[in-house]
From TrEMBL:
Complexes and interactors: Monomer.
Keyword line: Calcium
Entry keyword Transcription regulation: no
Name listed for the protein in its UniProt record: Aldose 1-epimerase
InterPro entries cross-referenced by the UniProt entry: Aldose_1/G6P_1-epimerase, Gal_mutarotase_sf_dom, GH-type_carb-bd
Lineage: Bacteria, Pseudomonadati, Bacteroidota, Flavobacteriia, Flavobacteriales
Any one GO MF annotation of this record: carbohydrate binding
GO terms of biological process kind: carbohydrate metabolic process
Superkingdom: Bacteria
CC cofactor: Ca(2+)
A UniProt-annotated Pfam family: Aldose_epim
Keyword check for Ion transport: no
């Protein structure tokens, strides 16, 4: 377990996963073991969304890639590159065609191994600042590589009636619960505020959209995404791809604390 600290703020990171962000005695991150989700954050890459109805295949210019829900990156282990008192950088390297064990097999998937036909390096960095935690996700790979990217953090709820605001829109927790597994899209949006016992604002760079998801009343996932996967049939998921331009592509998430 790695811990970052600045003044009365602490961040806990477990093998690249954000498992804690506290200010004083207030915890903002959903805790593993609590009802709702077995994780506290993850990345969705190189695809977002389910693939089961497409036989776990996604089309690329190099043929079909075997991908389970939200891609293969989350099945890989992070390596710690560097750390300071207030920052840490992790990375994952992937070589084209390498088989990656699928943790969903055999209970939730027919595919024991996943693969992707392109090389890439994925970096995840954390930096604790005065009033915010900044998370940067960086992708380096072959020019023309298709991808989608989503960041999937889960926030702990401390009140009975939290409100999520996006621009002029105010969303009740009950509305998110009613959507279910598909997740609620918040499109063409770069900033969302969770109004709870203590407010927190998530501002992004590079994503352009969000999804909101939960199945319980004690947590909510506020997920920056480059593409809302339920806008198309699973067989057309490749319509949501962006393409690398041969240089590092950086996406940022600023988690700012309120009162």
């Amino acid at each position: 377990m790695l811990e970052l600290a600045l003044s009365n703020k602490k961040v806990r990171i477990d093998a690249g996963e954000l498992v804690g962000f506290t200010v004083g005695d207030h915890e903002y991150i959903h805790q593993k073991g609590s009802p709702g989700w077995r994780s506290s954050d993850t990345e969705m890459f190189p695809v977002i969304g389910p693939t089961n109805e497409a036989n776990f295949r996604v089309s690329t210019l190099r043929g079909e890639a075997v991908q389970d829900q939200h891609g293969l990156l989350r099945e890989m282990e992070y390596q710690l590159m560097s750390q300071t008192v207030t920052s840490a950088i992790y990375r994952k390297n992937y070589r084209a065609g390498t088989s990656v064990k699928n943790s969903k097999y055999p209970k939730k998937s027919t595919e024991e191994f996943l693969s992707w036909p392109y090389d890439f390096q994925f970096k995840k960095s954390f930096e604790l600042k005065d009033l915010q935690l900044e998370i940067a996700l960086s992708i380096t790979g072959e020019k023309g590589m298709p991808f989608m990217l989503g960041y999937h953090p889960a926030f702990k709820l401390h009140s009975d009636q939290p409100i999520i605001t996006a621009g002029k829109k105010a969303i009740q927790l009950s509305e998110v619960l009613a959507v279910g597994n598909r997740a609620m899209p918040i499109l063409n949006c770069g900033t969302i505020t969770l109004r709870d016992k203590r407010d927190i604002t998530i501002k992004t760079e590079g994503f352009g959209n969000f999804m909101l998801w939960t199945e319980v009343a004690n947590m909510i996932c506020i997920e920056p995404i480059t593409f809302y996967p339920y806008a198309v049939d699973q067989s057309n998921l490749s319509r949501g791809f962006q393409y690398l331009e041969g240089k590092e592509k950086v996406f940022k998430i600023h988690i700012s604390i309120g009162s």
